[in-house]
Amino acid sequence: GRKMTNGEIYRPEKYTAACNILPLNTWIKVTNLKNKKSVIVSIKDRMNPKNKRLVDLSYAAAKKLGYLSSGLTRVKVEVLPP
């Protein structure tokens, strides 16, 4: 229920992500390299600057990619055109 960087309230059931590299409101396609499942999410938040990960997905997006039980997975990130 906390505010994200873009001012919206975080909702775990929405397909959103946090990223320090890409601009806010950028749409990306994230593909789990283990099972080839994909999800399209919007960058709505930033991560801690010390975090070395590329992207942090919402609960719903992580669930759709099928890696909730492991916590982390390797993914392919593609920036979608506006």
**Number of E-type strands:** 5
Mean pLDDT: 93
Helical fraction: under 10%
Shape: globular
Number of helices: 1
Strand residue percentage: 25-35%
Instruction: Give the strand line-up of the largest sheet.
Output: 4-1-3-2-5
The main pleated sheet reads as:
5 strands, mixed
From the N-terminal CA to the C-terminal CA, the straight-line distance is: 28 Å
Low-confidence spans: pLDDT under 50, at least 5 residues? none
Kindly name the structural category. mainly beta
> Over all CA atoms, what is the radius of gyration?
12 Å
Order of helices and strands: EEEEHE
Kindly summarize this structure in a few lines.
The chain has 82 residues and is mainly beta.
How would you sum up this structure, described in words?
The chain has 82 residues and is mainly β. It has one helix and five strands, in the order E-E-E-E-H-E. A five-stranded mixed sheet has the order 4-1-3-2-5. Strand 2 and strand 3 form a beta hairpin. The radius of gyration is 12 Å and the shape is globular. The model has no long low-confidence stretch (mean pLDDT 93).
What's the helix and strand layout?
Layout (H helix, E strand, L loop, with lengths): L15 E3 L8 E6 L5 E8 L10 E2 L1 H7 L9 E5 L3
Parallel strand pairs: 1-3
Antiparallel strand pairs: 1-4, 2-3, 2-5
